[in-house]
Every structure is written in structure tokens, then in C-alpha cells.
Hints:
The complex is a heterodimer of chains A (389) and B (231). Chain A is α+β, with helices and mostly antiparallel strands and 389 residues long. Helix content of chain A is 53%, strand content 17%. With 231 residues, chain B is of the alpha/beta class. Helix content of chain B is 31%, strand content 28%. Chain B has a six-stranded mixed β-sheet, sandwiched between helices. Chain B has a four-stranded antiparallel β-sheet with strand order 2-1-4-5, with helices on one face. The longest helix of chain B has 18 residues, at 180-197.
Amino acid sequence: MTALLQRLLGRLPLGWMQLTHNPGRLAAALAGVAFAQVLVFVQLGIMGSMNSSIIKSYDLFNADIMISAQDANTLTEGGNVARQWMFQALADPGVARGTGLFLSNARWEREGDQTTFQVYALQPEHLDFLSGDISRNARAIALPNVAIIDQQTRGLDPDLMAGIRPQSPLVTEVNGQQLAFANTFQGGVSFSADGYMVTSEQTFLRLFPARTSGAPNHILLKVAAGHQADAVVARLRAELPETLQIRTVADAASEDLRFQTTERPTGLIFGFGVVMGIIVGIVIVYQVLSSDVADHLREYATLKAVGYGPEYFLGVVFEEAVILAVLGFIPGLLISLGLYALLVALTGLPVAMTPALAIAVLLGSLAACTVSGAIATRKLNAAEPADLF
Amino acid sequence: MRNEPAIDVRHLNHWFGKGDAKKQALFDINLSVTAGSLTILMGPSGSGKTTLLTLVSCLREVQDGSVNLLGTELRGATVAQQVAMRRRVGFVFQAHNLHDSLTASENVRLGLEVQPEKRRRIDDRLAANHVLGLLGLDDRVDYRPGNLSGGQKQRVAIARALVGNPEIVFGDEPTAALDKESGRNVIKLLKRLGEVRGTTSLIVTHDNRVLDLADRIVTLEDGRLVSDEHR
């Protein structure tokens, strides 16, 4: 390793040699760097799973345009939309079809346990507004008091889920109403619910008697062949009242994501956690590097006296910073992978390590370590050699 | 020995501290050191020897007066000029200041790596080991400082100062950690470098065992130059 670094740097790898000269101290430094990286990984992992679950909610649909109330910052929040606007939208030649989408949370209470479902409901003749897998499995909801549920629902017995078939539905009680689970689909756990449930508008209104059929949460539209969604959105905005939000489904998803990550406490807390992890990392690496500079001040001063310039010392400290960041990354990544697996097992949330995330954390660590290194050499570079002895 | 001065000091004054705590350490020093000579700087503790040495060796900024080193005025020199000048000189400190993580040979190589133009012509390791050999450390080249005696460490530090073939060698008590024979050998080596290569040496020392080897002995007291004995 020393020979390789020497070849790369074109000089003795003083930083590497100093770090490895004291293995105990190096191990402690790497543990500190790895700890900071684990902090950042966990925060980013949870934030990423929140983002995935937000986008996932929209992936359940197969629609082009969404009409929502003005205050609907997220899919599940905000007021309702009068169904009459759907009919007006259908008058536009660019709109092929439309349906009302009803949303709410329902609690399924069982002996000693309970599950919260995020319920999606629409008219059974509009099942093609659901994405492929769900659309195929949702035919049973045409019958009253029938729903299909998410196979990945948190906390449900896999054997129980495996037994749910149209021929052998699970009849139970939800929100005080009898309901039959007649099929399953691949959904996913979200932050606000344990899983998804899809049912008909008619069944939904029985589960939630306060709701009315004339006021769904959103209106979903499909664009007619030969028309562009953006152009149709622009026309509908001109034709429909300004009190409505008219967006493509993709735009609605990205605005929901932006709102939840930048204006919601949860998003801000995870973002803050990432910043804290980075600060902890900078402080740890700064401590290691500044102690190293302090411990070798006389040696560095001697080098300064024989003509080594500020760039050399910066180079040595950067060399140490990069080594700490890269070597600390290996245990940091392995521990984080273990923690991700634990989080998935405990919560079912889609906490996933992606190459992009791993590379981003590595690059962030390199940047943080470099900043720490630059700070650590300030005293050395500012002093006259004679003052350092 | 050449006649032109390698070091030329004119009306040099220096102060430490600020305001009421400001104290003058050097008073109107005038000194010209001929190239290739070996000059010993003596004086009691606090006389200003080390202050003068650090000023003329470009380790401290000149406040008042003039210091001309190898034809370059140090007063008002930029950082880049100071760094360039330091690469032309060698420095041996009282403390060896070796890197514990490097072998003797690697420590010496640090004195060479700073001079890229010289490195192109020679093999760093061979050059370092050659100088260590001149100082009697052939069998210690791969030892780390932790496994060397005090005298051996000091000789490694001397080798580090000499390996780049400096035009001037400055020393602050370089023989303090050495026995009589080793100390005299080091000073003899500096003297020989002066004769063969024209290397100038300016050494601060209290070591009476090496005084007879000096070409010149300059004495300071209370920040003033009180005697200047040419031999």
C-alpha cells in the first residue's frame, strides 16, 4: 500500500505512514468516521424510503392528469373536489375518460392487533385507472363490500395473506362494517399506513358514511389519443376554476414529494439528521487531523524550515483525510446495510441501499474530511517556523 | 573558501512582544559570513544567538535592518521567496524532530523530496543512504527513530539537512546530543563540505569540544555582537 501511494503521490506517503504507525489510534479514528457515515446513511435511508413511499402512492394509478383541491398539498390531504368538474373536464376534446378517486384511512381491528389501511376507491368500471397488477386483481371489487389488500401490509401473517383468493375471501370487519378481502396485490408500506386497500366507490361510502359520492378527493383523467397531457392541463386550467389544482400525475407526485421533504416536520427532521451526521463527521475528522498536526508540530515545523510549502502540508493532511474517509466508509457501509435490513424487517419500509446513495455518502465524506483537513492545517500554515519549535 | 559573503547582516534589530511587553532581543547587528566558511556563534543563554540564527536562516521575518542571504534580501520577502530560499539551505535543530513513523532513510529522503529539480538526477534512497553512511549510520538506514539512540537520531537529522547539498547549513546546538568523537566528526564533515563544495556553515553551540574546528567564532551578549574572532 505504501509503495502504491508513493507511486500515486510521487512522494513518501507521510499521511498514510503516520496514520498506520499507531494502529489503535487509526482504529478509533475509523470508528468515529464510520459512526458519522452510519448516521448519515440511516437518515438518508429513512428519507429515501419516505420519498419512495410517496412516489409509490402515485404509482398505484394509471392516469395522466389529476384534479385536486387547492389545499391538497399531498395525496391524502386537503379538501374534496366536486364531481361536476370531472364532467366539465370531459367536455375537453383532449380528455378521454375520468373517474373520481376516494381516499381515506381505515382501521382493521382484530383480537390483540390492528392494521391501518390507506383505502383507495373508484368506480369498478374504471379499474383501468389502476396500475396493471392492481387493475387485474381488482375485478372482485365490483361486488359490494369487497376489497383487495396489499400483500406487503405490515404485520400481517403471510399464511393468512396467501389464503386470500376470490374463491376463498377473508371476511372481516373494518370500520364497523363487514368487508371481504377477495384478493391481494403488490403495494408497499407507507409512513401513514401499514398497507393499501382498494375497493369500489360504493363500498367506500359504506365504510365512510360521512363522505358523499359527489365529492371525491381527486379526479383522475386519461388523455385522449393524439393529445399531449401538458397541453390538456393548460386548457383545463383556463376552463376550470382557479380554486382547483390541475396537474399531470407526475407533477402532482413531485410536488407532493417536495412538500413533504421541505415543508413537513418529518422531511425537515430527516434532513436535519443528515446535516447533524455531516457535522459530527467533520468534528470527528477535524479532531483526528488537528491532534495529528499538534502531535507532529515540531516535525512539520522542521519540514517547513527546509522549504516545504503550505501545499505540502495541505497535501499530507488531505491524504490522511481521504484515507480516513475511504477506510471508514467500508465499515460504515457494512453496518448501514445491516441496519437497513433490520429496519426493513421491523417496519417493512422500503429502506434500500442504492449505488447512487453509497457513492453520494462516500463523496460527501471525502468533502467533509477535506474541509476538516483544510481547517486543521490553518495554524501550521499561518505560523512562522521559528515559532513552532 | 570564496570571498563573497553568503550571509550579510546590516543594522539588524529585533523585538519580541507588543506594547508595554515589547522587548528588544537584538541591537544593531552587523555580520558578514564568507561563503564556504564555518562560523560558530556563541554566547550565554538569552544573548540572542538563536534569534539571530532564525532571522538569517529565513525562519523568522526580519523587522528592522537588512539580511542578505545568498544574494537575496530577506526583509520583505514574500512567502514564495522564503520557501524558495529555505530550499537552498539546510537546518539542524537541537531536537532531532524526526518522524517516528519513517525509517532513518525515509526521514533523510524528506530533505531531498523538497527539491524536485535535484531529485530528477539521483535516486532518493541511494542518496539518503549515502549521507547516512558518511555519518556512520550504514547499518541503521531502515531503523525507525524509536530504535535509535539520541546521538544516532541527531545524526539522522544532520543527514536530512545535508542530503540536498545545501549552500548554507544552519545548526542550533547540532552536537549537543552527540559524544565528543561524533560531535567533532559532524563539524569536521561540515568543514570538509565547505572546502570541497563551498558549503557555508553557521552554528550556534556551547560545545567547547568543537571550537577549534571553527574558521571564525562570533560572540553575542545581551543581543549585541561583542567579539568576532577569525582563525
